[in-house]
Amino acid sequence: MGARCSKFSLCWWHSQLKPSILESSDLENAEKNEKNSLPSFTEFSLEELKAATSGFASENIVSEHGEKAPNVVYKGTLNTDRLIAIKRFNKSAWPDSRQFLEEARAVGNLRNDRLANLIGCCCEGNERLLVAEFMPNETLAKHLFHWETQPMKWGMRLRVALYLAQALEYCSSKGRALYHDLNAYRVLFDQDGDPRLSCFGLMKNSRDGKSYSTNLAFTPPEYLRTGRVTPESVVYSFGTLLLDLLSGKHIPPSHALDLIRGKNFLMLMDSCLEGHFSNDDGTELVRLASRCLQYEARERPNVKSLVTALVSLQKEIEVPSYVLMGIPQGTSSSAQSLSLTPVGEACLRVDLTAIHEILNKIGYKDDEGITNELSFEMWTNQVQEILNSKKHGDTAFRAKDFAAAIDCYTQLFGPSLLSHDMTELTSAAPAYIQSERRAKVEVADS
């Protein structure tokens, strides 16, 4: 996990801080770097975006709730081979096309490496789409709440908090202080594992379908009274993100504040972090969260003071984010780096709609009659061997002996079976994945 902190190491760290992390020019340099590396804001045609997403194919959906999301996000590839994320709004989200274009252009003028920058939009007929940089390494919610290989390290959590505060400070300096519904799903990780703030939340008056009103326990008090988002509301939401980072869970602010007032802040802390942070650092981050969550908006800190406070807490500043995150540099997360086929990606997401659509396109035949193609002799001679291979493969997989598991599964799906119709295997795949996921959930809940 993260490094333990002694008094000696803290003294050394303060004396050895990188000047760039403290200088106010750091964000200006980040802005210049992004402007140099990204294309200027572009108004794309609907045909271009259809081509980039294979006609908005369901297998390219990367939204949290798939096709059920009120506004769907797709992964796409431009003809320049640049990966993009395309947010397609529902028909009622932006009735005023002029307002949509004005907002998109304003947000598209922002360029900073703390943001997943907006690089274009499309406004044709009733269609409203935003085009942003694609971030290949999942969301903060995935890494905090649904991690698979390792929990997020303390040093990385502190870095996430700082980078988000810097993103908000940059936006404020450019006259975009309002951010709508800041939460762990709005924080994305780029190819180097660095956290970035999604540009989509910077759009004003977006009937996003996932507003504060659907998350009342986490809503700034003044929003409940007035229905308006203010810069102080954004700071309140930042405080809820600090609680997420501290606890590894999505805790209602009222419950967290009760624990803090009772001086039981250690009960807030993620048990995975035990022994990997100093009490002083933990106390300071809890104090920052508490200040952000004050009921009276005027009592909350501004983002500039948050940046100053978080800079002083940074650990392992020489260690790249991809190392702290445990992911390869310059690539996507392990699940995506496999370069799965569309049906493979759909199975991984357990997206039954996409699987059905793909199988229909390739001439799917149902399972009836497939088993009859195998002779009785083949079944009697091979079935025990197949069952044994599967059993041994499953045992090796659960023990994380992947080399042995691959050998066993290779025997299971050998040439004699692969010569037959593969639709049976394809149709069974999501059920197997779903059963494995259900087993993980049951273990986690027990």
UniProtKB/TrEMBL annotation:
Residues 59-313 form the Protein kinase domain. It catalyses: L-threonyl-[protein] + ATP = O-phospho-L-threonyl-[protein] + ADP + H(+); L-seryl-[protein] + ATP = O-phospho-L-seryl-[protein] + ADP + H(+). GO terms for cellular component: plasma membrane. GO terms for biological process: brassinosteroid mediated signaling pathway. Its EC number is 2.7.11.1. The keyword Electron transport does not apply. This is non-specific serine/threonine protein kinase. It comes from Dillenia turbinata.
